Predict the 3D structure of the following.
Amino acid sequence: MADFINATIERHEFDTLLEILKDRAVHLKPIMAVAGNIVVKSVKQNFREGGRPEKWTQSKKPKGMTLIGTGALMKSIHHKVDDDGMGVTVMTGPQKYAAIHQFGGTTAPHEIKAKNRRALQFTVGGVTLYRKKVNHPGSNIPARPYMLLQDEDIENIKKVMLEYLKDPIK
C-alpha cells in the first residue's frame, strides 16, 4: 500500500500579500478618480456623437450639433471622488437647463427682451423682423439623455480596478 505525499500551504505564508490587497481595497480614492475620468470622457463622447447608444432628436437650431450651442453644458461635466474614497459622482455644472435636456419637459410661455442690443432680430417666413421684446409660447424639449454610461465603460472601469488591485502583486 502506497503512502500519500502531501504538500501543505499555510495562510501565514501569504499574509504580506493579503495585507497589501486589503489595504489597496480600502484605499480606493486613486482608482475612483480614474473611474470618474472614464465616465466624464464617455459622457462628453455622448455629446460629440449626438447621443449614444441611440441618437437624440435633432435640434431645430440651424447650426451646430444637438446640445452643443456654446458647449457650456458639455464642458461643465466633471467628477468628484467621495470623501471616504468609496465612490465617485459625475455631475454637470450649474446650468439651469441641464435637467430638461436630460429628462425632457416643457418650458412655460415667457417674455424675451433685448438685453445686449436695441432690438431682437429673427426671421419668420424669410422676412427679418426686429422687436424690443417678444412673447415666447414655450417649448416642448425632448429628452436627450447625455448622462449615460455605456457597457464598454463599465468593462473598462472593471479592468482598471483589477489592474489597480493587482499592481502591488507584480
About this structure: The longest helix spans residues 29-49. Residues 107-140 form one domain. Helices lie at 15-26, 29-49, 72-75, 98-103, 151-166. The chain has two domains: 14-104+142-169, 107-140.
